[in-house]
Design brief:
Keywords: Sigma factor, Transcription, Transcription regulation. It comes from Rhodohalobacter mucosus. This protein is mostly helical and 196 residues long. It has nine helices and no strands. It has two domains: 109 residues, RNA polymerase sigma factor, region 2, helix turn helix motif (Rna Polymerase Sigma Factor, Chain: A, Orthogonal Bundle); 81 residues, Orthogonal Bundle (Arc Repressor Mutant, subunit A). The chain is globular.
């Protein structure tokens, strides 16, 4: 899980970026870039494409910097921009009649460490963290998205609601259901280990 980035830091950077502070923009980029790439990869499963989309979102932010409201959720804005770009990329790929699962250059990532090798992944399949990643991947897409934005990206229910275009209550329901699923799978795993 990635460490928390507090809203106050983001708001201060937003105010500085609005005033054309390049250093603040660079700081925001360094803070959020890895998280946003990982977020995009949940959709597109292509690291290069994800990096491009995140960079595009930051370029668009810089171009619109004079309109930034430091009191608004800049982090949510960036996540939404990256999500929309990712969905557009998927749509474009789909229009080319190209299945993203059939492409040889796909770089699937199942945790926050995007540089994990296939060998390390195989070693982790039976570890508890590997099992949790597997169980999270079993969740329906929207539930998984809400859970990962909350637990991996540290976003609030309100921020997630804005990104997913649902109510905060729906976000809460997704997260509660995800936690219930993970608890059930963990209990099954514990009971199976106890029987062996």
């Amino acid at each position: 899980m990635m460490s928390e980035i507090d809203d106050e830091t983001i708001n201060l950077l937003a105010a500085r970026i609005r005033n054309e502070d390049r250093q603040a923009f660079d700081d925001l980029f360094r803070l959020l870039y890895p998280r946003l790439v990982y977020f995009s990869m949940r959709y597109v499963h292509d690291r290069d494409a994800a990096c491009d989309m995140v960079q595009d979102a930051f370029v668009a932010l810089w171009q619109k910097r004079s309109g930034i409201d430091p009191d608004q959720a800049l982090r949510s804005y960036l996540y939404t921009a990256v999500r929309n770009r990712s969905l557009n990329w998927l749509q474009h790929s789909s229009n080319k009649n190209e299945s993203i699962h059939d492409r040889p250059d796909m770089n699937l990532v199942s945790d926050n460490r995007t540089d994990t090798t296939a060998e390390q992944e195989n070693d982790n399949k039976n570890s508890l963290s590997g099992l949790f990643r597997k169980w999270i991947s079993e969740l329906p897409d929207r539930r998984q998205e809400a859970f990962e934005l909350s637990r991996f990206d540290g976003l609030s229910h309100d921020e997630i609601a804005g990104i997913m275009d649902v109510s905060p209550k729906t976000v809460n329901n997704h997260i509660v259901s995800a936690l219930r699923h993970l608890r059930e799978r963990y209990e099954q795993h514990r009971n199976t280990e106890a029987e062996e």
